[in-house]
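Notes continue from the previous slide.

Worked example: a multi-chain complex. Inputs as given:
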Amino acid sequence: MNFAINLTVNGMRRAVELEDPRVTLLDLLRERLDLTGTKKGCDRGQCGACTVLIDGRRISSCMALAISHDGADILTIEGVAHGDLLHPVQAAFIAHDGLQCGFCTPGQIMSAIGLIQEGQAGDDLERIREGMSGNLCRCGAYAGITEAVLDAQKSLAQADGRRSA
Ligand code: FES
Ligand code: FES
């Protein structure tokens, strides 16, 4: 028996038939929708490499059953830039050397976007470190990552201020 679900992924409606209700959202994204930017690190909810936003909330997609998110709006790393224009968080990661090998970076960026949207990032490096603590980096690029999130948070707040002025 197949199970039909509908998702909006990076703004596009996707209808998917699942042969197995145990398929994780991570495997669905990578293996069925060819969205391989979302990485599989531990596959057990411990590293954050698979972080995506579901209805605006950060989630480890390796721990999410795809079938449980029928109708959800999903944002992955492939959907954050606008054409050649990088998302401010992406640009800040480059500016602050917030990566080395890059394996954890999609998850770090999605988590940072979620953290900033939650309004929890503040302007305090310690709070940012705590808010990003679910995203591990084997290369230890934490100093650059934290600076990048702080910088992106500031530039997004300024852009919001300009829009509402
Ligand atoms: S791959 Fe999902 S938390 Fe590590
Ligand atoms: S940049 Fe290599 S794991 Fe984070």
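Summary box: Residues 16 and 32 are 8 Å apart (CA to CA). The two ends are 55 Å apart (CA to CA).
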